[in-house]
Structures are given as C-alpha cells and as structure tokens.
Amino acid sequence: MTDRSRRREETRARLVGAAVEVFAAQGITASTVEQVCDRAGFTRGAFYSNFESKNDLCREILDVETQFYGEAFAKGAADFAGHFSAFPADLRRDPYEVLELGLRQLLPAFIAGADDRAASHTMVSLLFTELGLYAAREAGIRAAYQRYAEAILDPIEQLFGPLLGLAGLELRMDSTSAAEIVHSLWESGSRQALLLASSPSQLVDVVAEHVMVGLRLVTREIGSGA
Amino acid sequence: MSRPSTPRREQTRQRLATAATELIAERGMSASTVELICDRAGFTRGAYYSAFGSREELYRAVLEVNQDLQRQWIRQSTTTLAELLATRPDLLTGPIAERLAVAAEVSLGLHGGDEFPLGPGGPDPWTIAALVPIELALYAVREPESRPLFLATQTEMHEELGAFVISLAELLGLRVAVDRQQAGVALQSVVLAVARRAMTFDTAPAQVLSVRLAQLLGCLVGGGED
Q: Is A196 domain-assigned?
C-alpha cells in the first residue's frame, strides 16, 4: 500500500467510526454529514472525496457487517461441530435443555458485541437497529440492507439441521418461515438486552431466553406431530 | 408537572401527541423536533410547552398513543372475527389451519373493518405500527430515567397481546399452549420484525404477515383443539 492509499484508508475508517457514533447516538435521519465530519475532525471535502453521501456511507457499514456475519457464521458453525462431536449422547436429557446448551454455545459468535467488540456492544446494537429503521424509510440503502438481512437469516436456517438433530426435534414448518420467526424473537431480545443487560453474560442470557421462546414455538419432538 | 386538565387542554395535548407519533414513524425520535410537531398539529410552540413541560412528558403521551393503537387493533380484530364466525359457523368445524388463516387475515384487516388510522394525510399505518414501538424502545435505551415507564408499559402491552391471542383461539375453539406473557412477546416480536422486514424488501407487510401470523398462531395453539 502506498502512503497515499494508506492515508485514504485511515480517513475512510475514521469517517466510518465517527458516523457509527453519531448514528448510534441520535438515529440516522437526524444525523448530518456535517456532524459526522465534526466528530471525525475532517472537512466536508474529505468526506465527499470518500463517500458520495450519507446513504453511501450507510451502505459501506452494511457491506462490512454482511461480510463479518458470513465469517462469524463459518467460524461459529465450525466451533459448534467441534464442541458437539464430543457431546455425550445422553438421551434422557430434555430435548429443549439440549437445544439451549447448543444455542448458548453458538450465540456469542453472532451477537454483535459479545465478540471482541464487547466494549462497544451498545453502540453496535443501536447502530444496526437504527439501520433497520432507516432502511424501512429510505429506499436508497435497501439493496445493501437486503443483503445484510439475508446474511443474518441464512445461518439460522442452516443451523436448524444440526441443532435440532442433536436435540431430537423437528420444525413445524418450512425452514425459511421458522428462521424468520426465530429471528424476530432474536431482534426483540436484542432490544430487551439494551434495556436490561449490563454485562456480556447478561446480554447472552436475555437474547438466549428470547430465542428459546422462538425455538420452542417453531419446533416439536420428532414423531409428535401430525 | 402538568396543570389541571380541561377538555380543551386535553384535546390540544392529544393532537400534539398524535402529530408527534406520525413524525416519529416517518423520521425517528431525534429528528421529530418541537417545531415540526407544532407545524403538523397546527399549534404554536407556546401551546406545545403548556401541554408538555418536558421531552419526557411528550414521550409519556406518545407511549399512550401507541398503547391505544394496539388496544384499538385488538378490539377491532376480536369483534370482526366474532362477527365473521356468527355468519360462518361452518369455519369452526373446518381444518385448524383454515381457522388460523382466517384469524390472521381478520387481524390484518383483510376481512373488512377499518385500518387503524391516526389522521388523514398521515403516514402509512404500517409505518406507525412497525416503527414507532422500536423508536420508543430506543429512546428508553438512551434516556435511562424513562426506562421504568417504558418497561412497565411494555409488560402491559405484552399481557394485552397475550390475552388477545387467547381470545382469538377461544373464538376458534382452540387452546393456547404457552403462557399469556410469552404469547404476547412472541406476537409483538413477529409483527414488528416481519412488518419492518417486508418494508425493507418493498413488499406489503399485510401480505407477508398473513402467512407468518397464521403459522405463529399454529405454533401457539400447538395444534390442539379445546
């Protein structure tokens, strides 16, 4: 990397970092390019030589997170397989106890802020909630938001197989619908965690409790259904 | 603190709270300034400040509007379903899946009945239904002193939604298999997440929700007849 391109990367990263703080603090509609520049300590010229607009910057944040999610999923799935290949096949356990063990094993890899970004969990979580609201209002970032939304649902859908198989459970419906219902509870659990959790372990507890409500609803014991 | 309330004062307060709710749906909490609220409601800033002594008081009023909208929705859906069943008793002996589909459609206004409008010229009712509750939660995250009020209101709304699910099921001759609070949490989570997701995918929320709600109701009754 030349000095010039390195400087450029640094400028972009500082602008993105400042935008994350401003968006998380007051929402995206209320945030201006000027506020982002002030926070980052750059001129508007520097902003516009890196991003076309506020929406362009939002798209960049979403694209980075979409990629992060894909990687987190690959790693989470590998760890999960490693952990549960050594899991004792204790058939007398309650299937939902087994399911919750599996879920708690998986969750930290997917919760923004339960990983190495722990210190900034609140900010990251606020930011993505705000991006979801902004995408509902603003057509300009929808394509990027849709890719992000798919990247979040895919892992849930793909993990149903190994997770439910382990517990002796099956879905009551197609996996796409079930993933959407479970993810709905995940989202409300994340909001609830913002209100209630004061540590990473509490955060996992609140989200896990919500996701378990979803998982209990969309599953049943194998052979118990019509 | 608020002064003694007269009918006229109360009406002004209501109109301002309604205008604020619409703006919050369109632009978010931080971007809904006193000036914009006054413009939309057609009042002066003087009238605003005599109705609301602080941002916190406005927040309380918007929470009430939000809860009232949910109550209207519940009342209307329950009445419409009861009326429909009175003219179509055959539905009660039909397949469970069909009964659940009818309940979902009724609660989405697809079987007649008014939508729950706030006022003419306001935002799409889905924007209010799907985005305002999330805005209210985020405000409580950012303003810790408003958290107890938000959490207490949220618990009430979950209870009311849970009771709603139970009465829909009863009308259909079905029994809900989970406790009321959990049913309420699940219903609220799914409505908020699925409607918002539909908006970001340029799909009509009622269309996706009619399928998803029928599935959710199916999970909540666990396939059991009374």
A: yes
Overall domain count for chain A:
2
A167 vs A93: CA distance, rounded Å: 9
Same domain, A198 and A168: yes
Give contacts of A210 with chain B, Cβ < 8 Å: 185, 189
Given CB atoms, is A176 within the 8 Å cutoff of chain B?
Answer: no
Which residues of chain A make contact with B127, given a CB cutoff of 8 A?
Answer: 136-137
Same domain, A182 and A90: yes
Is the entire prediction scored with pTM above 0.90? yes
Cβ atoms within 10 Å, residue A100:
18
Note whether A187 and A90 are same-domain residues. Answer: yes
ipTM of the complex: 0.92
Q: pLDDT digit string (tens) for B185-210?
A: 999 999 999 999 999 999 989 889 99
CA dihedral sign, ordered B172, B173, B175, B181: positive
B6 CA: distance to closest CA in chain A (Å):
35
Q: Tell me which residues of chain A have a pLDDT lower than 70.
A: 1, 81-92, 112-119, 225-226
**A226 falls within a domain:** no
CA distances from residue B118 to A103, B11, B77, B137 in whole angstroms, order as listed: 41, 14, 17, 21
Q: Which one of A30, A146, A184 has the shortest CB-CB distance to B193?
A: A184
Residue range of the domain that includes A12: 1-51
Kindly determine whether residue A188 and residue B185, on different chains, have CB atoms separated by under 8 Å: yes
